[in-house]
Design goal:
The complex is a heterodimer of chains A (118) and B (111).
Chain A lengths: L3 E3 L3 E4 L5 E7 L5 E8 L3 E8 L6 E2 L6 E7 L2 E6 L8 E8 L13 E2 L3 E5 L1
Parallel strand pairs in A: 2-11
Antiparallel strand pairs in A: 1-3, 3-8, 4-5, 4-9, 5-6, 7-8, 9-10, 9-11
Chain B lengths: L2 E5 L2 E5 L4 E8 L5 E7 L4 E7 L6 E3 L2 E6 L4 E6 L8 E9 L4 E4 L3 E6 L1
Parallel strand pairs in B: 2-11
Antiparallel strand pairs in B: 1-3, 3-8, 4-5, 4-9, 6-7, 7-8, 9-10, 9-11
The chains are: A mainly beta (118), B mainly beta (111).
C-alpha cells in the first residue's frame, strides 16, 4: 500500500525559530506537494516539486521555502516562524500529471503535522 | 485504524447525467467530513459537513452526511465536461488531530 510519512505529528515552536518539516514517500512518485489546512479555508498549496531539485510556488509560498534533494523526500522550511503560520501542514505525492486532460492523478496524503507557533 | 473509503474509484458518464459519489468512514472522535475537487494543482474545497441530515448545496453540487451510518454522498446533477476531476473525501478525526483522506473517485464526463 502507498505510504507518505511526515516527520512529526505535532510541533510547538517560538516566533522567529527556523522550522523544518520533512515528508517521505515510498511510491517512487515524481510529484510532491506541501499544503496547509486551516478551518474554513480548505487546503492551500504552498509549494510543489515535479522532480528532484525542481520546485514551483503554489498559491501561498510567502514565508516558506522547500528542498528536494532526493526523489523520495520533500522538506518544507519556515525560515522565521510567525504566529500566522500556526496550522495543519499536509504533504502529498502523486505520479505524473496526465497530459491532454484537465485533472491530475490522485494525490496521496501524509497524516499531517500540526504546527503551533507561540 | 482510522479509514475513509470512497466508491466508486472511477466513473465515466455523459454530459447531463447525474452522479452520486460515496464516502464511508471509520474514525475515532469524528469532527467533520470534507469534500474536495482535485484538478491540476491543488484540491479545491467544496463542502464541510458536521451535522447529520443537513444538505449543503453549491450550484449543481450537493452533499449530505449520515453520522449514524457513517457515510456521506456527493451529488452532481446535469454534469458537464468541466466536472471531470478526482473527488476527494477527508475526515477530521481525533479532535482535529489528523485528517484522513480517501483515495478519491475519478470522474470523467464525456461530451
Amino acid at each position: 500500500d502507498v505510504k507518505v510519512t511526515q516527520s512529526s505529528r505535532y510541533l510547538v515552536k517560538r516566533t522567529g525559530e527556523k522550522v523544518f518539516l520533512e515528508c517521505v514517500q515510498d511510491m517512487d512518485h515524481e510529484n510532491m506537494f506541501w499544503y496547509r489546512q486551516d478551518p474554513g479555508l480548505g487546503l492551500r498549496l504552498i509549494y510543489f516539486s515535479y522532480d528532484v531539485k525542481m520546485k514551483e510556488k503554489g498559491d501561498i509560498p510567502e514565508g516558506y521555502s522547500v528542498s528536494r534533494e532526493k526523489k523520495e523526500r520533500f522538506s518544507l522550511i519556515l525560515e522565521s516562524a510567525s504566529t500566522n503560520q500556526t496550522s495543519m501542514y499536509l504533504c502529498a505525492s502523486s505520479t505524473i500529471f496526465r497530459t491532454g486532460k484537465d485533472y491530475a492523478d490522485t494525490q496521496y496524503f501524509g497524516p499531517g503535522t500540526r504546527l503551533t507557533v507561540l | 485504524e482510522d479509514k475513509v473509503v470512497q466508491s466508486p474509484l472511477s466513473l465515466v458518464v455523459h454530459e447531463g447525467d447525474t452522479v452520486t459519489l460515496n464516502c464511508s468512514y471509520e474514525v475515532t472522535n469524528f469532527r467533520s467530513l470534507l469534500w474536495y475537487k482535485q484538478e491540476k494543482k491543488a484540491p479545491t474545497f467544496l463542502f464541510m459537513l458536521t451535522s447529520s441530515g443537513i444538505e449543503k448545496k453549491s450550484g449543481r453540487l450537493s452533499s449530505i452526511l449520515d453520522k449514524k451510518e457513517l457515510f456521506s454522498i456527493l451529488n452532481i446533477t446535469a454534469t458537464q465536461t468541466g466536472d471531470s476531476a478526482v473527488y476527494l473525501c477527508a475526515v477530521e478525526a481525533g479532535g482535529s488531530e489528523k485528517l484522513v483522506f480517501g483515495k478519491g473517485t475519478k470522474l470523467t464526463v464525456n461530451p
